[in-house]
Structures are given as C-alpha cells and as structure tokens.
C-alpha cells in the first residue's frame, strides 16, 4: 500500500482528500502546517506528497525545498494559487505536478496514481547487466537511471530523466509537446505548457553543469517541439 503525505491546513479539504484517496488503496498521513509536515518527513517515508502552498508558519515552497534535500518522491501541488509565477517557482524547486482548487477528486486520484507509477518505474530494480546510452558527452545509464557528464553526476528527477531518455534515444527526431507529454506523463496533453516548459528549463540548466563550451543539448524547434542531435 502506498503511503501519501497530505499537507493542507483546511481541515475540510484535508478530510475530503484523505477519505477519497484512502479508498483508492492508499494510506494518508496528514499535516496541517509546515512544522508538522517536517516532523512527519523525519519520522516516515512516503511514496508521494500533496502540498498546499499557503500554509501556516512555513509555506509550501519551503516544504518542497526541504523534501528535495533528501528525497526524489513525486510532489503534487494542490492550491488555490493559479498564476504562472507560483507554478514556475514550484516546478523549478522540484514539484512534479500542479492542481488548482477547486479540483476534481477523480482527476487528483488519477494524477496521484500516474506520478507514483512513473516513480516506481524510475526506481525499479537493477538488471544483471547495465544498459547505457552515450550522446553529446552524456553517459545515460538506462538500468540505474543515472546520468554522468565526465566525472560529474547530474541529479535528475524521474520526470527530467524520462524526458532526457526519450530525446536521447532518438537523436535527430523531433518530438512535439503532445508526444513528449503522452510518453512521459502517460496522459493526454491538454495544453499544459507551464508544466512541460518548466521541466525542460530545469533539465537544460542541469545538463550545463561544468560545461564551458555552451553545448546545446536540447534544441527547440519553434512551432514543432524539441529534439536532441548527436
């Protein structure tokens, strides 16, 4: 059974989400503010976190940063703040998904399952023999889900890794945003440009680590999508 950390200060919303998600073969631990969330994170291990941005004592952005110090578990923001600045900041800090209030419990449950499914695949057991992919100075270990550039380890979230693997596995092939979203998120693309753009920007910045040659790893094809050339 998957264990989920729900950080929400509105008791009515918290109980509503807990009751619905708990009926979907998940256990839910709740926290009503930042300190309670941090205490829960120190005490237990979770498969996914649902975080409201507007919390007492410690806002959701701080919680995201705290989680990303030690864990790559999926993070879904559930908040009434529906503006590009907050969305971009949350994704840049390491959030994986963003749901605005009011929301559908059916959709939220589907997003929870999709994020846990991708994370489980990303953290799958190693095979007997590693499979690797090398492109543009990057060494991508397809078995251990690691990425190196020379002696530098590039730490990626599972979403960033899946985007990189998709593009690197098909050098020269252009992928539309719709194709990338369907392949990585495993769900139809509904014009969620902020989600994909934020992950792509963060991935590009991480790939530049220690690079003095300004290598362009991922090329934008305006009006089409993205591609990676060897």
Give an overview in words.
This protein has about 230 residues and is of the alpha/beta class. The protein folds into 2 domains: about 1-120, Response regulator (Rossmann fold), CATH 3.40.50.2300; about 130-225, Winged helix-like DNA-binding domain superfamily/Winged helix DNA-binding domain (Arc Repressor Mutant, subunit A). The protein is about 40% helix and about 20% strand. It has helices at about 10-20, 35-45, 60-70, 85-95, 105-120, 160-170, 175-185, 195-205, and strands spanning about 1-5, 25-30, 50, 75-80, 95-100, 130-135, 140, 145-150, 150-155, 175, 220, 225. The strands form 3 sheets. It has a 5-stranded parallel beta sheet with strand order 2-1-3-4-5, with helices on both faces. Helix 4 links the parallel strand 4 (about 75-80) and strand 5. Helix 4 packs parallel to helix 8 and helix 6 (about 160-170) packs across helix 8.
């Amino acid at each position: 059974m998957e264990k989920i950390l729900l950080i929400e200060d509105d008791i009515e919303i918290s109980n509503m989400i807990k009751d619905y998600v708990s009926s979907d073969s998940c256990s839910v631990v709740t926290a009503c503010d930042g300190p309670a969330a941090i205490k829960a994170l120190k005490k237990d291990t979770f498969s996914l976190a649902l975080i409201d941005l507007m919390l007492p004592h410690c806002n959701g952005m701080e919680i995201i940063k705290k989680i990303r110090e030690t864990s790559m578990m999926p993070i879904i923001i559930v908040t009434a703040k529906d503006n590009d600045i907050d969305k971009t900041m949350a994704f840049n800090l390491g959030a994986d998904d963003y749901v605005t209030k009011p929301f559908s419990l059916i959709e939220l449950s589907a997003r929870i399952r999709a994020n846990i499914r991708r994370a489980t695949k990303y953290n799958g057991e190693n095979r007997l023999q590693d499979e690797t992919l090398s492109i543009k100075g990057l060494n991508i270990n397809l078995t251990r889900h690691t990425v190196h550039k020379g002696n530098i380890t590039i730490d990626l979230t599972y979403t960033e890794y899946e985007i990189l693997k998709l593009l690197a596995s098909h050098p020269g092939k252009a992928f539309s945003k719709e194709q990338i979203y369907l392949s990585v998120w495993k769900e139809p693309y509904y014009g969620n440009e902020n989600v994909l753009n934020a992950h792509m920007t963060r991935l590009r910045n991480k790939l530049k680590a220690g690079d003095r040659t300004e290598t362009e790893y991922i090329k934008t094809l305006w009006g089409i999508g993205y591609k990676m050339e060897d």
